């Protein structure tokens, strides 16, 4: 999870998040080069005493500063579209979980396990154990296996919500009357935190998401839901 004074993104726990981090670094480098070039041009303009009477009628220069931005946009758009299509793929998921947003808690349904349904509320400060995180821990975590494709079906019962777990690269809107879906494959075990990322009301900041990812063999052994 994120920590104090963190500048970069959270460590990736899924292939999609790894791709997003790579694209972020790719775009950031392009932006850095553009900013350096613009600042260098401004510095020369402010410091030089020479004037060039031909600068206002330079066809070659105009061609360069028209084509170059187009090439830069293509270099950004192509990997962006690739990741966009990757996030929309659903390849025979091993497990389907339904998440329903309420004001202000989440309901989860394990459709492949006899319709197991439970609510997930934020733990009040008085109920926190040593090591628990304030405003992030819940009474019932979502236990899922790693190295298995998981499909999340996301909807809402009242207002707009957004089911988001940054370390997995997930953020899907929960819309009343609409069933959205997203897929992910976790690569390492652990406990990962998220929150509703849509301003859904007065207690918007009090409906966290906690995923407990465990090895597939342990998940298949029996009830591990907490």
From TrEMBL:
<comment type="similarity">
    <text>Belongs to the cytochrome c oxidase subunit 2 family.</text>
</comment>
<dbReference type="GO" id="GO:0005507">
    <property type="term" value="F:copper ion binding"/>
</dbReference>
<dbReference type="GO" id="GO:0016491">
    <property type="term" value="F:oxidoreductase activity"/>
</dbReference>
<keyword id="KW-0460">Magnesium</keyword>
<keyword id="KW-0999">Mitochondrion inner membrane</keyword>
<keyword id="KW-0249">Electron transport</keyword>
<dbReference type="Pfam" id="PF00116">
    <property type="entry name" value="COX2"/>
</dbReference>
<dbReference type="Pfam" id="PF02790">
    <property type="entry name" value="COX2_TM"/>
</dbReference>
<keyword id="KW-0479">Metal-binding</keyword>
<dbReference type="InterPro" id="IPR011759">
    <property type="entry name" value="Cyt_c_oxidase_su2_TM_dom"/>
</dbReference>
<dbReference type="InterPro" id="IPR014222">
    <property type="entry name" value="Cyt_c_oxidase_su2"/>
</dbReference>
<keyword id="KW-0472">Membrane</keyword>
<protein>
    <recommendedName>
        <fullName>Cytochrome c oxidase subunit 2</fullName>
    </recommendedName>
</protein>
<comment type="function">
    <text>Component of the cytochrome c oxidase, the last enzyme in the mitochondrial electron transport chain which drives oxidative phosphorylation. The respiratory chain contains 3 multisubunit complexes succinate dehydrogenase (complex II, CII), ubiquinol-cytochrome c oxidoreductase (cytochrome b-c1 complex, complex III, CIII) and cytochrome c oxidase (complex IV, CIV), that cooperate to transfer electrons derived from NADH and succinate to molecular oxygen, creating an electrochemical gradient over the inner membrane that drives transmembrane transport and the ATP synthase.</text>
</comment>
<feature type="domain" description="Cytochrome oxidase subunit II transmembrane region profile">
    <location>
        <begin position="1"/>
        <end position="91"/>
    </location>
</feature>
<keyword id="KW-0813">Transport</keyword>
<dbReference type="InterPro" id="IPR045187">
    <property type="entry name" value="CcO_II"/>
</dbReference>
<keyword id="KW-0679">Respiratory chain</keyword>
<feature type="transmembrane region" description="Helical">
    <location>
        <begin position="27"/>
        <end position="46"/>
    </location>
</feature>
<dbReference type="InterPro" id="IPR008972">
    <property type="entry name" value="Cupredoxin"/>
</dbReference>
<dbReference type="GO" id="GO:0004129">
    <property type="term" value="F:cytochrome-c oxidase activity"/>
</dbReference>
<dbReference type="InterPro" id="IPR036257">
    <property type="entry name" value="Cyt_c_oxidase_su2_TM_sf"/>
</dbReference>
<dbReference type="InterPro" id="IPR001505">
    <property type="entry name" value="Copper_CuA"/>
</dbReference>
<dbReference type="InterPro" id="IPR034210">
    <property type="entry name" value="CcO_II_C"/>
</dbReference>
<keyword id="KW-0496">Mitochondrion</keyword>
<dbReference type="InterPro" id="IPR002429">
    <property type="entry name" value="CcO_II-like_C"/>
</dbReference>
<dbReference type="GO" id="GO:0005743">
    <property type="term" value="C:mitochondrial inner membrane"/>
</dbReference>
<keyword id="KW-0812">Transmembrane</keyword>
<feature type="transmembrane region" description="Helical">
    <location>
        <begin position="66"/>
        <end position="85"/>
    </location>
</feature>
<feature type="domain" description="Cytochrome oxidase subunit II copper A binding">
    <location>
        <begin position="92"/>
        <end position="225"/>
    </location>
</feature>
<keyword id="KW-1133">Transmembrane helix</keyword>
<keyword id="KW-1278">Translocase</keyword>
<dbReference type="GO" id="GO:0022900">
    <property type="term" value="P:electron transport chain"/>
</dbReference>
<keyword id="KW-0186">Copper</keyword>
